[in-house]
Amino acid sequence: MSDQPSVWQGDLDRDDLVEAHAPADPFALFADWYGAAAACGLREPTAMTLATVDPDGTPSARIVLLKGFDAHGFRFYTNYESRKGAALAANPRAALVFWWEPIERQVRVTGRVARLDTATSDAYFARRSRGSRLGAHASPQSRRLADRAELEQRLADAEARFADREVPRPAHWGGYVVMPEAIEFWQARRSRLHDRLRYVRDEPGPWRIERLSP
Ligand SMILES: Cc1cc2nc3c(=O)[nH]c(=O)nc-3n(C[C@H](O)[C@H](O)[C@H](O)COP(=O)(O)O)c2cc1C
């Protein structure tokens, strides 16, 4: 493709984001925006880009699904032995990005990352479909495979191993929480003079709100 100006104009200009109306708690604003994204028909409003840094300093990003959030942070689930798992073991920091196109909003999060406790991961794993639970056993996520048949064989092995019984959470699979140090809310405005409000804090202090130039 050639370097054409975007057809996307960001001209809705319907929801300005001003300090006077911004809640003191960024999670309240996130809940509000997430609710708007979920209400506008997006199939996966929970999809977020998760960026980590590999042990050799190489950045790496992929989509994961947000499975919950509260004042503590943003939770997702994955394979602890995956590329992202290795990255987080060496450098437990990450960035998250949400882009909700229909409402022209972006949210960026940076913070420290910790594993969820095993009881929380167990409870979530138990709610997944049997197929997904078997898949967690079968897939050595991020490892090289000889071919597709190897993966199918691994699934068949897992099915045989857990025939007629519950599929327990494998120790290599579970949740993480991203505990934000900064959360930036971006709202499209006319002529690309977008609103950007960044919440930052020095724990355990209160959040401060900074306005950034678009
Ligand atoms: C819409 C979508 C949702 C995804 N959700 C997850 C998820 O919640 N957890 C996960 O481990 N991978 C998820 N993936 C797969 C990841 O993008 C990625 O391929 C996988 O986690 C391996 O990443 P890694 O090799 O960097 O560790 C999702 C992919 C897409 C496209």
Descriptive keywords:
214 residues; alpha+beta; Pnp Oxidase, Chain A
In short:
This protein is α+β, with helices and mostly antiparallel strands. The chain has 5 helices and 9 strands, in the order αββββαββαααβββ.
Describe the structure.
It is a single chain. The chain has five helices and nine strands; from the N terminus they run αββββαββαααβββ. With 214 residues, the chain is α+β, with helices and mostly antiparallel strands. The chain has a domain of 147 residues: Pnp Oxidase, Chain A, CATH 2.30.110.10. Strands 1, 2, 3, 4, 5, 6, 7, 8 and 9 form a nine-stranded antiparallel β-sheet that branches. Helix 4 crosses helix 5. It is elongated, with a radius of gyration of 20 Å. It starts with 25 loop residues before the first helix and ends with a strand. The relative contact order is 0.19. Bound molecules: flavin mononucleotide (FMN).
Please provide the ordered H/E string of secondary-structure elements: HEEEEHEEHHHEEE
Distinct compounds present: flavin mononucleotide
Report the span from N to C terminus. 26 Å
The overall strand count is: 9
CATH level 4 superfamily of the domain at 19-124 and 171-211: Electron Transport, Fmn-binding Protein, Chain A
Relative strand content: 25-35%
> Per CATH, which architecture of the domain at 19-124 and 171-211?
Roll
Walk me through the topology.
Elements: H1 26-39, E1 47-53, E2 59-65, E3 68-70, E4 73-79, H2 83-90, E5 93-100, E6 105-115, H3 118-127, H4 130-138, H5 148-161, E7 173-187, E8 195-200, E9 208-211
Helix pairs in contact: 4-5
The protein binds flavin mononucleotide (FMN).
